[in-house]
Amino acid sequence: MVQVHVAQSFGLGCIVRTMYGSVRRTDDTVGRMARRQEVPRETRQTLTRADVTTAAIALVERDGLDALSMRRLASELRCAPMSLYTHVHSRDDLVDAIVGRLIERLDVAPNEGEPWQDAIRRMLGSYRDLAVQVPRAFELLALAPYDSSPVAPHLGVALAGLEASGLEPEQARQILGIVDAYATGFLVVWARSRTDGRAAAPSDAPASGIADLRDLETFDRGLEALIAGLDATLVGTR
Amino acid sequence: MVQVHVAQSFGLGCIVRTMYGSVRRTDDTVGRMARRQEVPRETRQTLTRADVTTAAIALVERDGLDALSMRRLASELRCAPMSLYTHVHSRDDLVDAIVGRLIERLDVAPNEGEPWQDAIRRMLGSYRDLAVQVPRAFELLALAPYDSSPVAPHLGVALAGLEASGLEPEQARQILGIVDAYATGFLVVWARSRTDGRAAAPSDAPASGIADLRDLETFDRGLEALIAGLDATLVGTR
DNA sequence: ACCTGAACACCGTTCAAGT
DNA sequence: ACCTGAACACCGTTCAAGT
């Protein structure tokens, strides 16, 4: 007899649910499922800031931005709401942690000898990819203030990259601001419309996939128009 | 002796504060102020949806978007929270009412024989003006979904105007989407940064006014670049 | 038709207390 | 250091009741 001992006393840390890596199920007899024990194993280990951040992003992607509350996140992590405050100063700090996690995925590092147009395409390409991958959490990054702690350094790197491509500092600032405004406005509205059913649909790939593709094509077209226009009116005329 | 009778019984409607139309005060002696009775007159009259909407916008501009709650708005109007539900179905409906009020101020009516570039400049100029005038409530309009009840008809009018300027329907749709994305992204971030002190400062005109002007110049420059680029890559090549 | 208080199921966060 | 329950001051909204 297998005895699963679930300790419930204090100070032992939250229960972190360890998922099996998507076990395929080719038959669905009820008896077999029970025999296989396809129940998520629950291992007890101490919670970290990374755990909290990961769970928060998963919660947002599953249930939407409105579902991101300290209490709900705690119940997701099977711990008391106040336990979160050991790893996160406040709800705002939690959002900063999420933004920090997402911003890492952006490609802003400068490339040797790259024209500024290509640098912009590369940066905004990764921005667009992020909107595709995490459409609901994306908004937290997209609308985060420029001077928030996770955003500011990445902005500095991006600016330095543009200057390395030969733009004047003031040109780089304006161009990045303009291009970022375009991408932010486009992608936030796009991501919202894509996830407007309040909960995430399990599989909406084929039909709406075409509409998505189409809108992202418009995104790319607008970006090319913007780059061409900036080159003609801001850079070329110097 | 002037007797001010403030009825407090039921069913007589909320107290609506009627402001004097910005009475100039060239002297500020305390005694005089009292003698003049420059206290807002409080007249009892029945509340309307328009009253609720007006008060909501004023509340948002004074205390920020986070302050927009049914309970707080009710206390602002000196009535019970539940009284608001006579005029507004829900908080979301209240936001729709605000968006509807703001969107009226946009200039989207088509002009006879106007090139599409000028139509875009006119529409986005009024959009930018709105961000200047109501920077905190602006976000509600800017990020409202395209298919929300107050937004959809105005979008239709704007599209018709662009088509009247000679654009193909598909061109008009793409161009409006791209240009709106740019303006939305730019102005939302701009408006947020302008009002980041959580409460509105009483008079921050001179110093930050220069920075504002500068950023709005960048907005206009970006718009011109975008129009030029769209003309070259989307319209001109046909 | 319009307004109201009590109640319900939520929030973020402080505090004192546990291990 | 990490976790916890109780408590406080908030939310939006339903419901039954008042005029």
TrEMBL record, chains A, B:
Residues 46-106 form the HTH tetR-type domain. Residues 69-88 bind DNA. Pfam families: TetR_N. The keyword Transcription applies. Keywords: DNA-binding, Transcription, Transcription regulation. This is HTH tetR-type domain-containing protein.
